[in-house]
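INFO worker-7 received task bundle
INFO bundle size: 2
INFO processing item 0
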Amino acid sequence: MVRIKDIAERAGVSATTVSNVIHHKAGKVSPELVEKIERIIREMNYVPSLSARMLANESSGILGVAVGYPERSLHLPLEDPFVASLIGHLEHAIRELGYYMMLLTKRSMEEILQESRAWNFDGLIAFGFSQEEFEALREAFDKPIVTIDSYFDRRYPRVCNVGTDDFDGGYQIGRFLLNRGHRDILFVADNDLGVDHLRWEGFRKAMAEAGLEHLDDMRLMVPWDYEPRLRRYDELLGLLRRQTALFFCSDYNAVEAMNHLRRRGVDIPGELSVAGFDDIVYARTCWPPLTTVHQPVDKKAALAVEMLGRMLRGERVDGPEPKVSVHVVERQSVCAR
């Protein structure tokens, strides 16, 4: 096992100097010497001890990522390709920042609170929580927190939200469908909270600008759970077939519905066009490939970690809420009318 002493001997410096470079306390060390020590660390494949880092910095060196989405009847949160992709990009960005990531998926709120305290996270990234749940988390965890896609009142210091321009995404896909001649369109979602609400508001604005009436009748709410949701599609099959297009608030639900409706004899896109939101891997691999709103998950994750890193350095993050922009990706699931 490579020791700090071994690196110091090879670099011709004291063990204290090497330790300061490893623990980012090298303010009095020249940049040239820092570069030399870091090169030797890489060459010798030195792996720092987490416990030693905790003692040296009075911190854990760990950033928590807490996922608050409940389990669906069909899958766990991490089986959702959007959640899995976001977590993968978060892990990469956290590692680049020089921290370790610990993932907490929601079994109970009390477990998340206990683990956050027990592991002494230096900071936390959280998404999928209700306002009540987040308030409980904030009261128990007083270090910097970045939320993702959490559109509720945040009355606490050292809290920042990173989001997507969901309103504009809903507006863009609405305009896209209108420009391809669609007028009988349903917006389909399994809730009216947060991002889904903003996507509906953007879509509704596009429909209003086109002069369409009875806009509230263009929104269809379906159950959260898998089997009740499919039963609802069967119950409303006549209504769905009277439309020319469906816009789903997520790609996951869009692909699921496409498969189900095709099994019921619906021709997609010849009879019914389908669009989604997120641009998950399923959107590119299903048939027909799904027209969707692309949100850059990699940029969102990097932005969340950047904001957390700024707060960890003591910087203020006041100002407009940072958001990533979106754009429509046209594929074969939508045809012109």
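INFO item 0 finished
INFO processing item 1
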Amino acid sequence: MKTKDYNRGLRHGAAVGLGYFAVSFAFGMEAVTKGLSIFQAVLISLTNVTSAGQFSGLGIIAAGGTYVEIALTQLVINLRYCLMSFSLAQKLDRATPNRHRYLMAYSVTDEIFALDASLGSSLKPAYHYGITSVAVPGWVLGTLTGAISGNILPAFVISALGVAIYGMFLAIIIPPARQNKTILTVVLCAMGVSFLFSVLPVLNKVSSGFVIIITTVTVAGIAAWLKPIQNEESKGEE
């Protein structure tokens, strides 16, 4: 069963790994243009695995910012991963050892979370590791390749690579949204709330990191209250 779950994760994570390669390629190129070495760029990708966090952190480094600025920025931008981890913890069997929980937490990203959360069954660590086995290497190798390439590619190509992650995320979220009306409703509501934060006075002053957190807590909380996920025992009783 573990091998089957792992291989399933490999198959599902292949597209994520390819998408990560494209996006991190752009990060690697930008990192070396900002003065970082190839080793430093690769080390950042290996230890962070977060596009928004890495690009924002790179900007602060290039501007000569302080450690405090970087720490606060990363906290705001990446705090959503804590919420995602809480959610995934509910899909794990209670008997899952803590060592697996810690290892899985390292590679909780938006796309990997989407794959884990869209599973119709309980989450198995082997499935998550299968995704990670192609997603993280794709992210790191993309950074390495981009850093080596330096300034060879023109600016418009780098710009195009920067939006690749959004297309990849849409490819992951659309199939389950088409199959489940609740997921579709949650996605549309999240889009609506995010739009309000971008156009309404005062709300448009809120940082993007907090917008993500507020939107996630609000929409997911209401959805969980109105449409709670039934466990297998409850389904059997019905």
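INFO item 1 finished
INFO post-check item 1: DSSP finds 13 helices and no strands in the chain.
INFO post-check item 1: The CA atoms of residues 88 and 115 lie 11 Å apart.
INFO worker-7 idle
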